[in-house]
């Protein structure tokens, strides 16, 4: 009996750690990019025509990552374990059938369950949830046999610390930029390299059906057997069906089109000097304080002969209005809306390019000051500042997590 109890305990421990790890990872990568999660909610609500929920995308993003994180912490560290078991069970009870519906209908190709850190198809997500749900059911069944190892008040205090931890990360990432950037437009990335397709990469495979007509009767043919020698058949139309999607480069929709329809992508990415791109998906939603900062920065760049452009998906009328109202004398390019929201999680945001390589990224709250913009010190000052802050952010994040972990284990050992 003792041997059996030991096996059951070890099995429960392993399952608890597995489930907790998945929940923590899934919630953390969403928590460091709440705007990305909000965008994913927006895509789902649009696909299902639930437009009445569009105003709640950001609250939903915060709620999902926070609740998922707390369930994961509960299971992983054995804190309020029965409550955590209920949370995991309800999560999987809701999301497992939901992911089946998504797999069957495919309204959005990427489920977004692991943010941009790990992209899974809808079917991959469903099968992952089936396995995870089986483990959760086992844990839920034995939940009454799981016992607390610390006083209830201590457990609630530790959970409260973790709650502040994940909320602080999400709020900071929302106001500034994600602490960890999993997207192809991260600092140090080369946009031209990200657009390249390897020569041996698989291509899209299509099935083409040709419709021909003879004696008022239409018939389908393939490209191998169509009646090209029989003039009695008249071609009507053709349609193609994608059988297998080929390689898609990480960056595939980056185009800079001016008001005359000219494409300046290669010219901007190939420029050997420094170029600032103001990323402003929705001009009408940009705060006045952000537009004022952008105007001041553009004037400084003009004085230092540094190129400054704006990229937007807004209509021409909005572009003309913002130019007239704020006196902007820099050029605007039209760029895909999804691409702009992927480049920078801020409206507006800013990136610094040199020969197509991203040297810096900023939320509008953190635009570089005018004194940083000097020809001979631009690269050194701005990139060092950005990399230094990013390093300290990640290091601080890691130290805080270790501190919480140490507190949890230390209390356990004292008991």
Annotate the secondary structure layout.
Layout: H1 2-31, H2 34-47, H3 57-76, H4 81-105, H5 122-141, H6 152-175, H7 191-194, E1 205-214, E2 217-221, E3 234-244, H8 265-269, E4 274-279, H9 288-303, E5 307-312, H10 316-326, E6 332-334, H11 337-343, E7 349-354, E8 357-363, H12 378-414
Parallel strand pairs: 4-5, 5-6
Antiparallel strand pairs: 1-2, 1-3, 4-7, 7-8
Describe this structure in words.
By secondary structure, the protein is α/β, with parallel strands linked by helices. Helix content is 51%, strand content 13%. It has twelve helices and eight strands. The protein has helices at 2-31, 34-47, 57-76, 81-105, 122-141, 152-175, 191-194, 265-269, 288-303, 316-326, 337-343, 378-414; strands spanning 205-214, 217-221, 234-244, 274-279, 307-312, 332-334, 349-354, 357-363. It has a five-stranded mixed beta sheet, sandwiched between helices. A three-stranded antiparallel beta sheet has the order 2-1-3, with no helix packed on it. The protein is flat and about 80 Å long. It starts with a helix and ends with a helix.
Question: Which structural traits does this protein have?
Answer:
single chain, 415 residues, alpha/beta, five-stranded mixed β-sheet, three-stranded antiparallel β-sheet, 12 helices
SSE topology string: HHHHHHHEEEHEHEHEHEEH
What is the number of beta strands?
8
The quaternary organization reads as single chain
Structural class: alpha/beta
Unreliable parts: 411-415
Percent in strands: 5-15%
Task: State the separation between the terminal residues, measured CA to CA.
Answer: 26 Å
Number of helices: 12
Average pLDDT confidence is 84
Q: In what order do the strands lie side by side in the largest sheet?
A: 6-5-4-7-8
CA-atom Rg in angstroms: 27 Å
């Amino acid at each position: 009996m003792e041997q059996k109890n030991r096996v059951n305990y070890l099995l429960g421990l392993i399952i608890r750690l597995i489930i907790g790890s998945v929940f923590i990872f899934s919630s953390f990568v969403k928590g460091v990019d709440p705007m990305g999660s909000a965008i994913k909610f927006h895509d789902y609500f649009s696909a299902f025509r639930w437009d009445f929920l569009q105003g709640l995308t950001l609250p939903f993003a915060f709620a999902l990552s926070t609740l998922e994180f707390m369930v994961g912490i509960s299971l992983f560290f054995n804190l309020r374990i029965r409550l955590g078991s209920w949370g995991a069970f309800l999560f999987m009870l809701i999301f497992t059938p939901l992911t089946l519906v998504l797999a069957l209908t495919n309204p959005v190709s990427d489920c977004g369950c692991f943010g941009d850190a790990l992209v899974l198809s809808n079917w991959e997500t469903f099968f992952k949830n089936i396995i995870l749900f089986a483990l959760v059911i086992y844990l839920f069944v034995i939940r009454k046999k799981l016992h607390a190892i610390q006083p209830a008040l201590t457990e609630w205090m530790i959970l409260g610390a973790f709650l502040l931890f994940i909320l602080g990360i999400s709020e900071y990432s929302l106001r500034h930029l994600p602490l960890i950037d999993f997207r192809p437009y991260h600092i140090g990335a080369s946009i031209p390299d990200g657009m390249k397709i390897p020569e041996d990469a698989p291509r899209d495979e299509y099935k083409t059906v040709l419709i021909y007509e003879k004696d008022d009767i239409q018939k389908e043919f393939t490209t191998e057997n169509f009646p090209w020698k029989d003039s009695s058949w008249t071609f009507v139309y053709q349609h193609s069906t994608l059988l297998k999607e080929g390689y898609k480069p990480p960056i595939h929709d980056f185009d800079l089109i001016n008001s005359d329809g000219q494409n300046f992508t290669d010219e901007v990415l190939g420029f050997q000097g420094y170029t600032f791109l103001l990323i402003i998906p929705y001009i009408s939603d940009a705060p006045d304080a952000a537009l004022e900062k952008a105007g001041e920065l553009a004037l400084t760049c003009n004085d230092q002969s540094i190129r400054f452009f704006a990229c937007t998906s807004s209509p021409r009328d909005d572009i003309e209005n913002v130019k007239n109202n704020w006196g902007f004398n820099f050029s605007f390019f039209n760029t895909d809306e999804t691409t702009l929201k992927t480049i920078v999680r801020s409206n507006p945001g800013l990136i610094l390019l040199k020969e197509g390589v991203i040297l810096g990224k900023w939320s509008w709250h953190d635009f570089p000051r005018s004194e940083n913009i000097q020809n001979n010190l631009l690269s050194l000052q701005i990139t060092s500042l950005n990399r230094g802050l990013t390093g300290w952010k990640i290091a601080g994040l890691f130290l805080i997590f270790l501190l919480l972990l140490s507190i949890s284990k230390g209390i356990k050992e004292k008991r």
